[in-house]
Amino acid sequence: METTGTNRAVEAVWRIEEARIIAGLSRMVNDIGLAEELAQDALVAALEQWPASGIPDNPGAWLMAISKRRAIDGFRRNRRLEDKYAQLGRSLEEDGNQGTADFDAVLDDTIEDDLLRLVFTACHPVLSTEARVALTLRLLCGLTTKEIARAYLTAEPTIAQRIVRAKRTLTEAGVPFEVPQGDEREERLASVLEVIYLVFNEGYAATSGDDWMRPALCEEAMRLGRIVAELVPAEPEVHGLVALMELQASRTRARAGSDGEPVLLLDQDRARWDRMLIGRGLSGLERAERLGGPPGPYALQAAIAACHARANTPEDTDWVRIAALYAALVQRVPSPVVELNRAVALGMAFGPLVGLELVDSLTDEPTLKAYHLLPSVRGDLLAKLGRTGEARAEFERAASLTGNERERALLRSRAKACAEE
């Protein structure tokens, strides 16, 4: 096989196996930073050896075996971890150095537990939100520092420092590489789901830059969400989150015009919505509901997205149900942003004046002062009431607040349309 083709094959294998290898090594050495270094050493070895020797029958097992050997070499140089050396030595002997060994067996049949441990560790609340997102994208999604920086329009050294500091913080805080139990598990799971949805939202509606969407981030978030759903299948909120992301992502092709300009929900060509993703999302929502208990925030949002997905035309949308679901969501997670979304639903269900009354009650909310969607929603409701002068001012204010160039152009266009009426 030619070198270029082999390198592409190595990259493909690495994309599949990286998170599992790092997870398995993290359990053994109890240090995420060291585990990542060992895994990278194995990748380098593969790039050096596979072009000549060919790709092993079970490349994941080969990479894991090489990583273990690198760990043993390190422990030989550092007698502080003699017990770990013995543990890894026995493990390597049991593997028999056979690259054809089953990958799960190489990881001592704990691959799922190890992945779950890595998920909970990377998303640990001891880290800042930005650090959790960066570390998750690096370790669990396999994105390079350069790819993460490009996705978030951030300098590469900044992302690199963020990841290094995150790993150092975990080590210094003595965060155990384990799956939390009891009440702590629910709190930590909420942190995991928050990180996944933050990644998805940045892809679905970019907060800055020239692109309206960054679909690659949506794909990574959905992939990670599905992995977590497989690891904790009895958690309804995990299935609710995956359903929510799939239902929202189903609109991706219809959310932008030929020139990349944003297309609002009610103006979208619903024939371009992805029916496969809608089907998966609706099935996931049903699964979350079957697991029982009161619906959580993600399941409620998925139910709202399902109302849109089931409507063949904007006129078919059950806005009364959507308004009721937002009311339930406010009860679960009181938030001015949720109230703003409820105002939109109320305006659609019962008329723009009803929606405007709720929006006006939010204008003094400190957390919404710099939130561009507040004047955007208010402008839309005012325009429907024929108060075009006021609507124009609101759209112009919204345009000044958003950091996304595509969205700014759309808001200015709406302001201009108001001036022409």
Automatic annotation (TrEMBL):
The family database entries (PROSITE patterns) matched by this protein are listed as: SIGMA70_ECF
Q: Which GO terms describe its molecular function?
A: DNA binding; sigma factor activity
Keyword DNA-binding among record annotations: yes
Q: Name one GO biological process term.
A: DNA-templated transcription initiation
Q: Tell me the SUPFAM superfamilies matching this sequence.
A: Sigma2 domain of RNA polymerase sigma factors, Sigma3 and sigma4 domains of RNA polymerase sigma factors
Domain (RNA polymerase sigma factor 70 region 4 type): residue spans on this chain: 120-170
Q: List the Pfam families.
A: DUF6596, Sigma70_r2, Sigma70_r4_2
Keyword annotations from UniProtKB, A to Z:
DNA-binding, Sigma factor, Transcription, Transcription regulation
The protein's matches in InterPro entries, at most eight in alphabetical order, are given as: DUF6596 (IPR046531), RNA_pol_sigma70_ECF_CS (IPR000838), RNA_pol_sigma70_r2 (IPR007627), RNA_pol_sigma70_r4_t2 (IPR013249), RNA_pol_sigma_r2 (IPR013325), RNA_pol_sigma_r3/r4-like (IPR013324), WH-like_DNA-bd_sf (IPR036388)
Q: Does the keyword Transcription regulation apply?
A: yes
Family membership noted in the UniProt record: Belongs to the sigma-70 factor family. ECF subfamily.
Protein name per its UniProtKB record? RNA polymerase sigma factor
Organism encoding this protein? Murinocardiopsis flavida
